[in-house]
Amino acid sequence: MDTHQDPTWLTANVRPAGSFGRADVGRLRALLDALAACASIVVLDLQAARLRSGHAAEVIDEAARELEERGGCLLCVNADSDARARLGACTHAVVVGPGQPLPMGYGLRAV
Prior knowledge:
Elements (H helix, E strand, L loop, with lengths): L10 E4 L3 E3 L4 H14 L2 E5 L3 E3 L2 H16 L3 E5 L3 H7 L6 E2 L16
Parallel strand pairs: 1-3, 2-4, 3-5, 5-6
Helix pairs in contact: 1-2
């Protein structure tokens, strides 16, 4: 009888669209808080989103910190140069530009 079990992972893929400024941060925070509480990895695809506020970057990094504390990861993909500039001070979110390879490590596993 094999008693070894692989850990279970829940990955959430989120693709916000539109321009996120100070007034929109509450909705983004509510979504990321809910996902950080139950997902292992959150992939935030920023291709169709524009971050107009430093508050949005703070919300993203806070959710990334919560995931990281539980052994997970928040990965921002397709982040254009403006998004990368806003997210540059983040110490927990992993930020990847369009067409860049995904980093291994940071809670990510090759499948």
